[in-house]
Amino acid sequence: MIDITARGMRNRNSSVALGFFDGLHLGHIEVINAALARKDLAAVVFTFNNKTLLPKFSTRENIITHELKLELLSKIGVDYIFAPDFAEVQDYSPEEFVKRILVDKLNAKYVTCGYDFHFGKGGRADPTELCHICRKYGIEVCVLSAVRAENGEIISSTAIRKLIKEGNVALANKYLGYELTYVLEVEHGRKLGKQLGFPTINQTIPKGTIIPKFGVYKSWVMISGHIYPGITNIGVKPTVNGENAEPNMETHIIGWAGDLYGLRTRVILREYVREEKRFASLDELKAQIKADKELCMK
How many domains is the chain built from? Predict the structure, then answer.
């Protein structure tokens, strides 16, 4: 996969999937797969860098990083990705967006988008207007309907964020089509876990990234291509830090021992186990961690 900001499309005609794709969930994948289906055209994804804050959001709560988005897009077979910052195109009229991006930049002949896609200054244009403008340039447009879960709920980034904040990462993962993943640098902590017999890695979830409900989760940890089960605590660790500490992510890796300080390590959340709570003593905390470990190994 090539970022066309560096090379451009040159003389290749393309099939373009349009969207922010902030979660790259199952609904987004339908839009992208529709573009991939045109085997006679180069498959392009037009999206935005995840550092972008779209007008419809008051704060950034990215479900995945831009790097992980690129990784997943590469795995599903996208040929090119164009991901400008929103500020670069926010003042384009709908006509300018089609002409300057789809026609001049991407040589688009086929375009796909979701039923709720909006574009142009102020997001005032919808898929109906996209079809109208593209028709003038000989571009075919495919508008995808909502993808629904088994319970009938529309799969959306908003619904997934709600599930993550509720701690229901198991269902969020089903909506995503992959498991909620954090790839973060391992930092030095207080090494209390090691003293208790359960060494951990400490990672800070960066601002702009969604923070799951505080508590303990079953997890996977990937180290040098191998996957280990883990116990991940997300929160402030009130037993040792008090209630007002900054939240972080701390993981005990089952069946592994070593030094990961300074390395970007992948932690994958699987299932919520219990709420974070304050314990009366470190012995009580140690007993609970032991019980959590036994549960996470099942």
Answer: 2
Determine contact, residues 218/270, Cβ cutoff 8 Å. yes
Domain membership of residue 153 (yes or no) is no
Q: CA quadruple 126, 132, 133, 138: dihedral positive or negative?
A: positive
| Domain shared by 183 and 137, yes or no | no
pTM of the model: 0.86
- What are the tokens at 181? 């993943």
Is 6 a member of any domain?
Answer: yes
Task: Evaluate whether 169 touches 213 at the Cβ level (below 8 Å).
Answer: no
Please identify every stretch of the chain with a pLDDT value under 50, giving residue numbers as ranges.
Answer: 6, 239-240, 244
Taking the CA atoms of the chain, what radius of gyration do you get in angstroms? 22
Give the whole-angstrom CA distance, residue 267 versus residue 231.
Answer: 10
Both tokens assigned to 187: 């930092």
Phi, psi of 24 (to 5 degrees): 50, 50
Enclosing domain of residue 41: 2-144
H or E, element range at 123 = none
Domain-embedded: residue 170: no
The answer to whether the CB of 44 falls within 8 A of the CB of 121 is no
Looking up residue 283, the CATH number of its domain turns out to be: 2.40.30.30
